[in-house]
Amino acid sequence: MPEISRFMNMIIQMYFLDHEDPHIHVKSPEGFCKINFNGEIMKGYLPANKLRIVKQWIIQHKDELEHNWEISRDHIEPERIKPWIQ
Predict the structure, then answer these.
(1) CB 64: neighbour CB atoms within 10 A?
(2) Is 36 a domain residue?
(3) What is the pLDDT of residues 21-39, one digit of tens each?
């Protein structure tokens, strides 16, 4: 699964040809979850402080995330996205 970003000890990934609604996978030592592009957890757990940061990052990069979702559906590796910045 391609890594599209990494920040605050979290890895953000996106699967090729995932069949659900557009989402990302977030892995951290404290938890793992799938989050849609509206910032809602679809599955899993992430501590509230990290979830807040990921939601802000999604807002900052929503256009890039949507672009990556589209190209990954065509077997094209998603592009890297800048990490979260305060």
Answers:
(1) 16
(2) yes
(3) 999 999 999 999 999 999 9
